[in-house]
Amino acid sequence: MHREDGQTTDVYENDGVIKGKIGKEITNAMQEAPEQLQRVWCCCVFFCYLQPQCWPSCFTLCHAQERQLTNNTNLTEERIQLQISNTDLIKEKDQLQTRNNNITKEKVQLQTKNINLTRQRDQLQLRNTDLTRTRDQLQIRNIELTNERDGLSSNNLVLIKQRDQLNKEKNELLKCLSEKDGWTYYKSNLYLLSSEMMSWTESRRYCTERGADLFIINNREEQNFAIWKMSAGVRVWIGLNDIDVKNMWKWVDGSTLTSSFWASDEPTGQRRENCALTHGSGWADYPCNDYFQCICEKRILN
Question: What sections of 182-231 are H helices per DSSP?
């Protein structure tokens, strides 16, 4: 140990002060202790050197101080660890608070969404109730209409049979009339070829006096019927003229000409050729005062 004169002496220099097993323990403790404890042990040894009779108490006191310093060191380390742990806990607390805030926001959003979904559900339930009621009404109406349809179908079958029977009887009557009065039955109408030759105006009067009018030809089939079945290809007046406006051909019922069957180079459009006739080659315009036979048409079904 250090003396006041600057020299170092060993703790065993004075065997009367420190000796034996206890002296060895003090020396070992000083050598193994940390720097702070070494200073404590040095103080103890120095005190024992000055007061040899107190060395047992000194030794006990040094051990107590050593334990206190050790406890203080341990407590300091525990404090540091607790501070670190506290810092971590504060961070964790902040994270949990942030997480809690986010969860709270999500909860509010979910509550709002739940309210909206509940409102939509209620609306859909009302709509479903209305649709169910409408469906039931439509099903009842469908049953009624089905029954009505079946009844009408039955009535329709009866009416079809009656119509067919009436048409059959009508055709038989028309055939009898045509054979009796010279009329020819064709597609529900009656046709008559005059035996006399007349002007176009006289021909029309001849037809109207018999409840008919000059023939109106609407299609190729009727054209063929007129020239081959009725007139055998000779010239006959038909119900077509441009008396009112030149080259504006109209039928006797006032309808305009749509389908035409003019012969080659017809109509010529010469002066006073305002009335039409038909023959084997087709239609032609002639002076209305010329004399030809005519075909009358009596419509049975208007």
Answer: 200-208, 220-224
Q: By C-alpha distance, which of 42, 33, 22 is closest to 66?
A: 33
The answer to whether the CB of 253 falls within 8 A of the CB of 204 is: no
CATH of the domain at 278: 3.10.100.10
For residue 253, give the nearest of 197, 301, 212, 203 by alpha carbon. Answer: 212
Q: Tell me if residue 113 falls in helix, strand or coil.
A: helix
User: What's the token pair of residue 83?
Assistant: 């501070």
What are the strands, taking DSSP E only, across 222-299? 236-241, 250-251, 275-279, 282-286, 293-299
**pLDDT tens column, 116-155:** 999 999 999 999 999 999 999 999 999 999 999 999 999 9
Residue 238: name the closest of 249, 177, 247 by CA.
249
Say which residue the tokens 């239609």 belong to.
283
CA–CA gap between residue 87 and residue 108 (Å, rounded): 31
Asked whether residue 241 is assigned to any structural domain, the reply reads yes
Q: Does 212 fall in a domain? A: yes
* Cα-based torsion angle of the residue sequence 214, 220, 222, 223 in order, rounded to the nearest 10 degrees: 50
Strand locations in 114-182 (E): none
Q: Helix, strand or coil for residue 185?
A: strand
* Tens-place pLDDT, residues 227-264: 999 988 899 999 999 999 998 999 999 999 988 999 99
Place of tokens 């060191």: 73
Rounded-to-integer distance, Cα 87 and Cα 93, Å: 10
Range of the domain at 252: 188-299
pTM (2 decimals)? Answer: 0.47
Q: Output 99 or 73, whichever has higher pLDDT.
A: 99
**Those residues with Cβ within 8 angstroms of residue 283's Cβ, 6 or more apart along the chain or in another chain:** 238, 240, 260, 261, 262, 263, 266, 267, 276, 277
Give the number of domains in the chain.
Answer: 1
